[in-house]
Amino acid sequence: MKVEEKRTYQAVIGLEFHVHLATRTKMFCGCRVVYGDEPNTHTCPVCLGHPGTLPVVNEKAIELGVMAGRALNCEVSERAVFARKNYFYPDLPKGYQISQFDEPICTGGHLDVPVGDETVRVGITRLHLEEDAAKNVHVGESGRMHGSVGSLVDFNRGGTPLMEIVTEPDIPSPEAARATANHLKEIMRAIGVSEADMEKGQLRCDANVSIRNLDGSFGVKTELKNMNSFRFVERGLARELERQRDILDSGGKIEQSTLHYDPETDEVHELRSKEYAHDYRYFPEPDLMPLKLSEAWVREIEDRMPELPDEMRQRFVEEYGLSPYDAGVLTADRDLASYYEAVAAEVDPKQAANWISGDLRSLSNESGTEISDSGASPEHMIGLLQLVTDGSISRSAARDVLGTVFETGDSPSVIVEREGLSSVGGDELSGVVEGVISANPEEAERIRAGDKKVIGVLIGQVMKATRGNADGGRVREILLQKLGS
Amino acid sequence: MLELTASALAQKIRDREISAREAAETANHRVEEVEYRVNAFLTPTPYVALERAGRIDERLQNEGIQPWEGVPIAIKDVLSTRGVRTTCGSKILEDFTPIYDASALVNFGEDLVMVGKANMDEFAMGSSTENSAYGPTRNPWDPDRVPGGSSGGSAAAVAAGEGWWALGTDTGGSVRQPAALCGIVGLKPTYGRVSRYGLIAFGSSLDCIGPMTRDVRDAALLLQAIAGHDPLDSTTANAEVPDYLADLEGGVSGLRVGVVKELMDERIDAGVREVVERVVGELEAAGAEVGEASLPHAYYALEAYYIIAPAEISSNLARFDGVRYGLREPADGVHEMYRETREKGFGDEAKRRIMLGTYALSSGYYDAYYAQAQKVRTRMIGDFREALSSYDVLISPTSPSVAFEIGAKTDDPLAMYLQDICAVPASLAGIPAISVPGGLSEGLPVGVQLMSDHFTEPLLLRAARAAEEVADFEFSPRP
Known about the structure:
The structure holds 2 protein chains of 2 kinds.
Chain A: E1 11-20, H1 59-71, E2 75-76, E3 79-80, E4 82-86, E5 96-100, E6 106-115, E7 118-131, E8 135-139, E9 150-154, E10 161-167, H2 174-190, E11 203-211, E12 222-225, H3 230-249, E13 257-262, E14 267-273, E15 283-284, E16 291-292, H4 295-304, H5 309-320, H6 324-331, H7 334-344, H8 349-367, H9 378-389, H10 395-408, H11 412-418, H12 426-439, H13 441-448, H14 455-465, H15 472-482
Chain B: H1 6-14, H2 20-38, E1 41-44, H3 46-61, E2 73-76, H4 103-108, E3 114-118, H5 152-159, E4 165-170, H6 176-182, E5 185-188, E6 208-213, H7 216-226, E7 256-260, H8 270-285, E8 289-293, H9 298-316, H10 334-345, H11 348-361, H12 367-390, E9 393-397, H13 413-417, H14 424-429, E10 433-441, E11 444-451, H15 457-470
Parallel strand pairs in B: 2-3, 2-4, 7-8, 7-9
Antiparallel strand pairs in B: 1-3, 4-6, 5-6, 5-10, 9-11, 10-11
Helix pairs in contact in B: 2-3, 5-6, 7-15, 9-11, 9-12
């Protein structure tokens, strides 16, 4: 009997990121880096490519590039060279992009990416610096060049510093690709290299994707572009893998090509096939000297580098006794992490973690208001948790108070006072309990006789009388005591 | 006034014997008088000259002026001048007016008394100024002959007395060769000594702005005015600018002078060699230690140069695409617009070098051409290091012949390229080199080239001054 060979489909994905660097000025001139201003208001002869102008390297960009490289465990090159990448396009004023080619500033790193319960190690091939192109604006109905009435160019973005990061083809699934992009964003934000907001185009992602051959070798790859959100990275890659699988299943061959993902139709379209491949005619940029990056300087930058997300997560587990999950939630966002640390310094760290990762984050998510923009300052959070700890308010009341603090910014104690939410305790509670007993003689008698099932009814009455501002356990205790059972 | 050197005129302006305005008027008159037969300028700027000269005279009354200021100057049309049309001798920039001044001009001083923008081979590519889109410049010594190039307009302006001095640019001899053919002094400083910011690039790793003057002292003074580190040009040296006039009269006694044997062979006209030999003999008589020097890779220098320079220009000229400035030929679609604009805008030589350079950088050919040429360049630098360990100054002809007739080489690019065989080695090595008139052959001027180590311009100028002293040549404006 013939066993039908069943093909297993193993995805091989490598990513290429473009990250906007958070510098004040452009890569090779003194123009400010500003997005969203009136077109062509941040330009000069250099970034407009006027005849006779020359580039001068932005040192801050080199520093950020080195910092990013070290955060990705890369080796920093002692010597790095800028090169010209030659091609014609209206958004490229010099007719070449200043980039790096065979001597980039960083090579050979890796990134440990949490994917579900596992960690995938993604190799970093190289990291280099370049300038961004300007922005073409096509006038006409379609908004694309084809069929437009005319095209305009906004040079505000032209020449802004860009970092390209290329991974090894180590990524096994669209899900892992999305996690890699997400993890990279976290790191870039944490070290202050970039805001890395994909929606704003500060982080762009292209992918090389193929399906491994039966003998284990790499299959023919395609390049997938325009995945401009984390969700589209995953969806676009899934779609492309599906397309490749369909071709292979029907006995076809994958053609090397560049594809464009359209999230609206969830389809990939061919941009250009291999025959149209550019010859960029790279050569060393004669207007710039090779960069010399001394070991001492690199070390100095490392010393200034903020804590990385992985390191912080580990520290939260060790220092505050949090679960890896809670530590992960709290360190996913740098602002949230520092909020937590401010609170945990004053109150029980585990209690703080529960409230911040739970209630506070839900409030933020539901309202769409960032915690930093809300009324819930770390000081207010500390005040609230202290009221809970010393029994001044019940947990359920504290939840309501937090909601009010979040909205209004008023201090928790003021809110408790104003709304009469402080726990009813001591003599007052004792009086309320006695009142409830005399109002319900039948139930009280049954409890005295040992039938404790009805105690719930009386607890309910007490809670009702105190408008919930009493501790249920305490009420039960007093009832049992007074009814002598 | 027309017979004075720039230095002498500058002194008279400071001594208030002659006003800057009178000097500017004299230059403007001279332009009107001879320009019809020289065609040195693409854009004469008489009003700019007068206005700035007026300001010089005012400042002279008040805070004073620099020693080089006030003397009318011609500026090669490859240097960016704010508010004054800058064409690079090309149709593609026919109506282009820059919005900033080149750093070298800013260094000189804001009241630069500019007589005009001088004619040149298109984008500085050529050795005769015949590649200008606006017609050739004529040699003031003989209107049927070329002035050399690519700074032919600048050289002819100085030789004809249309201004007392000029700035040119030298990528592979473009200051020195026209200086030689027009009987003036042309200095290519060390690469990185003068800022290239605002010099519209030809071969970025080779381009140098240089003085073109009546004598060596003027060249030293003009270099003093434009040299220095520029934060806008990362390839300028962050080294102090010495006093170029201090050692000028130091003479050649004890100076070791090496005659480059590879540049004295039969490729050089006999009449040219004779003039060089005579000057060398006189220098020896004046106390120099003369010997024979060798630059073995000089035989390959021209080939390497004609790969590196076109490679760079193919990239440097890409910005002239009709999108933002300069000529635009309307067409359907952006690629058609590029093609039409560049087809109409560039001349034959520009197109030839764009093609050569694009080819040399293409994938699969890069190693065989560009990378190989860079290796030759490294060898050339090694040759100079070796030769300059035995000699202070090297000497050779500047150009293999005297000025040739207009049209004689236009159909044979290779013959034209050979004009640069003596000049290109120093360009590849980035060392300073100067051409000084050594005498006449066939009734036309012959240039003697002197070369020295990086940043040793004081020594080079001193030797050049001595050569000028012993040469059988006297400057006088022509015609």
